[in-house]
Specification:
Layout (H helix, E strand, L loop, with lengths): L7 E5 H5 L11 H7 L8 H33 L8 E7 L5 H15 L5 E5 L7 H6 L14 H12 L4 E7 L4 E10 L4 E5 L20 E7 L1 H19 L15 H24 L8 E5 L5 E7 L1
Parallel strand pairs: 2-6, 2-7, 3-6, 7-8
Antiparallel strand pairs: 1-9, 4-5, 8-9
Helix pairs in contact: 7-8
Length: 306
C-alpha cells in the first residue's frame, strides 16, 4: 500500500457488497438512466453492490452525528438546533461526481422518506465569465482562484447553522453563471456538496470547506481513463449542441471531427490534467471514503478511513 492510503482500509468490491445484504435497489432502471451523466456506465448492479452499502455506512455516520450533537447540547446546557448532515463529493472533471451525487440524493430520499435531501454543485460559486476575463483567468476556470470561496464558505456556514440561503446557478449549456437565477435552500436534512474543489485549501481564508462535512467521498481513477471519459463527454456535448445555437458548444460543431478531438485533447492536457494533478488529487486523503474506478467507470475498490 502506498503512503497516500496509509490511513485507509482497502476493501475489494466483492467484500464491500457482502456488507449489505439487501438486494432491492430502491430505484428503477429508468430512474437510474434519468440521473446518469452523458457517458457514465453505471447500472442497477452497481447500485446494489456499491451504493446500498454506502447508504448503510452514511446511516452510521448520521446516527453518530445526531448523538454527538445531543451530547454536546447536554454538556453546554443548551438546546442545539437541527442542522443538515453535509456530504462532500470530490474528484476530477469527468470522473462521474454528478451521477454519484444525484444517485445518493435519490437513495437518501428513499431511505429517509420524511427528509429533504438537497444537492448543490460548487460550479455555482465560480466567478462569472466576465469577472474571469477581467482578471485574465478564463483559462484557469476550475482552478482554485476561479471560485468565490468567501461566498461558498458563507453558504456552508449558513447551512450548518440551520439558516436559509440562496446561491448562484451555473449552466454548462452557456458555460457561465446564469444571470438572475438562484437556487434557494431552506433547512435541508441532508446537503450534498459536489465539486472538484470541495477538499481544497482556501485562498487566504482560515476555514476549510471540509470542516463543514459530516461525511466525504473522493471518486478516484487513473488519469488515462479519466481523459477518455472527458473526450467521450466532449463528443456527447457536441452532439447535444448540434441544433442549439445558444449552446456554448455549438460553435465547435462546425469543426471537423479531427479538429474537435485535437481541441478537447489540448483542453484536457493543459487545463484539466494540470488541475487534477496540482490541486484535486492531492486532496484525496481528506476524504472519509474513496471510490476507486477502473475501466468503464466500474468501481473495483473502496478505501475507508481508519
Amino acid at each position: 500500500m502506498t503512503n497516500e492510503f496509509i490511513n485507509f482500509e482497502k476493501i475489494s468490491r466483492s467484500r464491500w457488497q457482502e456488507l449489505h445484504q439487501t438486494t432491492a435497489p430502491l430505484l428503477t432502471e429508468e430512474e437510474l438512466e434519468s440521473i446518469k451523466s452523458l457517458n457514465d456506465k453505471i447500472n442497477i448492479q452497481d447500485v446494489i453492490d456499491v451504493y446500498l452499502p454506502l447508504i448503510s455506512l452514511i446511516q452510521i455516520y448520521k446516527h453518530n452525528q445526531e448523538n454527538l450533537a445531543f451530547s454536546k447540547g447536554i454538556f453546554l446546557q443548551k438546546y442545539v438546533g437541527k442542522r443538515p448532515f453535509i456530504i462532500g463529493i470530490s474528484g476530477s472533471v469527468a470522473v462521474g461526481k454528478s451521477t454519484t451525487s444525484r444517485l445518493l440524493q435519490l437513495l437518501l430520499t428513499r431511505t429517509y422518506k420524511d427528509s429533504r435531501v438537497e444537492l448543490v454543485t460548487t460550479d455555482g460559486f465560480l466567478y462569472p465569465n466576465a469577472t474571469l476575463i477581467a482578471r485574465n483567468i478564463l483559462d484557469k476556470k476550475g482552478f482554485p482562484e476561479s471560485y468565490n470561496m468567501e461566498l461558498l464558505i458563507n453558504f456552508l456556514d449558513a447551512m450548518k447553522n440551520g439558516a436559509d440561503a440562496s446561491i448562484p446557478v451555473y449552466s454548462h449549456e452557456i458555460y457561465d453563471i446564469v444571470p438572475d437565477k438562484l437556487q434557494t435552500l431552506s433547512a435541508p436534512d441532508f446537503l450534498i456538496v459536489e465539486g472538484i474543489n470541495v477538499f481544497q485549501n482556501p485562498q487566504n481564508e482560515r476555514l476549510y470547506m471540509s470542516d463543514y462535512f459530516d461525511f466525504s467521498i473522493y471518486i478516484d481513477a487513473d488519469s488515462k481513463y479519466i481523459e477518455n471519459w472527458y473526450l467521450e463527454r466532449f463528443q456527447a456535448l457536441l452532439a447535444l449542441a448540434e441544433k442549439d445555437t445558444s449552446n456554448y458548444y455549438h460553435k465547435f460543431t462546425k469543426w471537423s471531427a479531427k479538429e474537435a478531438l485535437a481541441f478537447s485533447k489540448n483542453i484536457w492536457k493543459t487545463i484539466n490534467l494540470v488541475n487534477l494533478e496540482k490541486y484535486i488529487e492531492p486532496t484525496r486523503n481528506r476524504a472519509e471514503l474513496i471510490l476507486h474506478k477502473s475501466k468503464n467507470h466500474k468501481i473495483d475498490e473502496i478505501y475507508l478511513k481508519k
